[in-house]
Hints:
The structure holds two protein chains of two kinds.
Chain A: E1 9-17, H1 22-26, E2 38-42, E3 52-59, H2 61-64, H3 66-72, H4 76-94, E4 99-108, H5 111-120, H6 122-132, E5 135-144, H7 162-198, E6 201-204, E7 218-228, H8 232-240, E8 249-257, H9 275-288
Antiparallel strand pairs in A: 1-3, 1-4, 2-3, 5-7, 5-8, 6-7
Chain B: H1 28-37, H2 50-63, H3 67-72, H4 82-85, H5 87-112, H6 123-136
Helix pairs in contact in B: 1-2
Amino acid sequence: MTTSTSEPVTYAYAVARAHPDLAPSLTGLVGVSGAPVHLISEGAGEEGGGDVVLVVSPVSAADFGEEGLRRHLEDLDWLEAVARAHHAVVEAVAARTPALPLRLATVYLDDASARGMLRSAVRLFSERLDHLAGQVEWGVKIYVEATAEAAPESAPAADLTPGRAYLSARRRRRNDLEASYRAAQEAADRVGDVARAYATDRAAHRPQQGVLAGDAGENVFNDAFRVPRGRSEAFRAGAAGAGHGLAGVRVEVTGPWAPYSFAVPQEDEGTRGTDDARSAADTAGADGSDGSDGVVRGATP
Amino acid sequence: MSEPLSNRMGSYPSRAAPPYAQGSSANLADILERVLDKGIVIAGDIRIDLLDIELLTIKIRLLVASVDKAREMGIDWWEHDPSLSSGARDDRSLAEQNRRLRAELNALRRDRGIPEVDAEPHGTTRRRADQDDDEHE
């Protein structure tokens, strides 16, 4: 990839609460395309602002311009490298101070333009940062394991015709699968209970589907939970145990993540987080669900 | 159960190990679903059609729970439309498409007074038909 001689553009990773340790911690950190990472500040002196910063890197306009992005985003290696670098910077920042991750490939023509964006939304950012302070995100996925061939248990009765034996095996397999889906529902309910006890918000992710993910089983539940740091371990342990004693079900907990899934208030994207809307969202997220909304029914029998 | 929120804003231990344990070991699919689909969407100066990103995300979702695995297997998955690369699913959707086309065809035939074709040919009848064809040729 030839880098043009033109001015670099500004790649933005996250909005963050200013913190004395933040800038030093970015020294030596490698961002996307190996670029150094620095901060842009704005709003000093304004009420509600003043301590909100934008975390950015200078990147090549050839790679991150419109055309370059379009081309690169189809390249898995490139996408992975950028996604991991983006994520690494977000994590490094969120480890120091409350942070709002931006979506991948948020690019400005220069730092001044990025600063303008920050200025225009500094209050919103500040509110949201306060709201998310001291909280982390945990991911919980529930898989129905592919037990299809695993249990021939009772060998097909010898007196059955091949056709009947086949049908009976099929029925058994389907029953196993249905039992697994019920077990997954039970696990999801338990996760819901754990969330009610420890989490403050919940965000649904679409279940991960993969035709190549043979050994992983079918992902039927994929949600993220916002959890105060102090309850983090209790949540993790509780969620991880949700599959205990349930056959054909696997529960996977990932995290803690920076609050990617909660950076934007969930049900009020139009009104952008008034206090009322936020507490309503909190309530809904914490206990508004009966735990049954997350599990998709056995997608395709 | 109400532990105090010991870590309020600004009071993060500065030298403690980062509380984010994901690091480079995090599953790429988990990272992608967050960096592509979550986070704040702010219009940058560089406009990348969001639809492209959505499409990309959908492709990733459809195709791989483990992107790593895909690459491991040397599968050039961008080249192939995921909806065309899944054998089982495809058979089903093709069959379904077939069925609908056949129904449509029959509707047209009815309109014109032409005898309808068998709506749901069975495997066996199809084979017989194939054989018949061979014999005629």
